[in-house]
Amino acid sequence: MREQWSRGGFLLAAVGSAAGLGNIWRFSYVAGENGGAAFLIIYMVAVIFIGLPLVIAELAIGRRGRDDAVATLRHQAPGKHWYIAGGLSVVGAFFILGFYSLIAGWALKYFIGAVDGSLWAPVHSSAYGAYFKAFIARPYEPLIWQLLMIAITTAVVAAGIRHGIEAANRLLMPILGLIIIALAVYSLNLDGAEKGLEFLFSPDWSAFSRPAVYIAAIGQAFFSLGIGMAIFLTYGSYLDPGQSIGKSACIIVLGDSLLAITAGLAIFPAVFAFGIDPAEGPELAFITLPGLFSQMPGGRFIGTLFFGLLAGAALTSMFSILEVPSAYLARRMAWSRRKAVCLAALLSFLAGLPPALGFALLEDITINGRGLLDTYDYAVSHLLLPTGGILIALFTGWGWGKSRALEASGLLNSPLGKVWLFSLRYISPVVILAVFMSA
User: Fold this and answer.
1) Which fold has domain 7-438?
2) What is the C-alpha separation between 60 and 71, in angstroms, rounded?
3) Nearest Cα residue to 89 out of 64, 61, 113, 116
4) What is the per-residue DSSP string for 95-152?
5) How far apart are CA 429 and CA 437, in angstroms?
6) Which regions of the chain are under pLDDT 70?
7) Tens digit of pLDDT for each residue in 46-68?
């Protein structure tokens, strides 16, 4: 018999899945690089009009199919080739978890360093660049932290839906929510914090004329929610038949967006209060902020909370990413959950070796001018996830059949059902394709 979530447990796990590194590490630096408020507006529009319909679609497909991504799409459209979208998600999950776990390992390294005091060893804030570069340039130390995060994830996912993923999220999500609120309150009370609020909420209207801002915002919406990875399709396969998909999807999207905005409130006021450039890029969390924490009153404690938040948020997303290939392997190989999870974790770790070694043994390898980690990030957010998203939109809007899609989503007798289908048939594919072509 297939496991099922409890109602509250599903929402915590689903919000935890969406609310990961994408909301804290990636959101902060991508927003900083793309004008702050203008980026935020486009991001929220993309989340509502593209992200929400796709989350509803994945949950509906998953609950109707009650199997892994490949089997579900094969059974829902027999004799057709929509199952390729599920296969793409399964293969993609290995690479996504591979590079995601690398960043998660960095967060864990910094959290442990903040707790034992070794992170605060550099005397000057300017020394954190050298500190970070020395760490990632070591051939094997980053791999150890990466492997540790994958091991924790494996142990949780192997324990099952209720006793593993749901139980872990019930513990982690309230703690992470309290930490991010505390950080935001602290940051907003710093002298000069109003400049950060202005950056985040007062748009530079000229930024709306830059196509790169739209591409970055829509790509971030996909990365943050985890659309196109078949995460919600897989999570939906364990969903209680009586639970409202529309309401659940709204709560998931709202929770994810609030966490992203709260992360911005925790980071940007502090960044501006200390005169730091918000467009620092991916190193904002690992070079700029540690130096900032070392200068702030009570900054070491605040820094410990921040990196604990980063590591914990990474875990809640890693659970969901690992579940996608694990469910496929368990069904395809007729294996126990534990055996399938262990193999999926091993393959993900191997897929993450190139970016992990991209700062050391493989540092001379670049693709179109990008290092291996940047290549993985770019391929995932601008190519893989949009491809998965557009296939799910086309399957739900055209391939599944109108009545089946509306019935499975619970929107058969709702006026919103027509709006939802229209978005999946026309708006989502056109916008995603535009982003895909631009990338």
Assistant:
1) Hydantoin permease (1.10.4160)
2) 15
3) 61
4) HHHHHHHHHHHHHHHHHHHHHHSGGG--SSGGGHHHHHHHHHHSSSHHHHHHHHHHHH
5) 12
6) 123, 125, 280-282, 439
7) 999 999 999 999 999 999 999 99
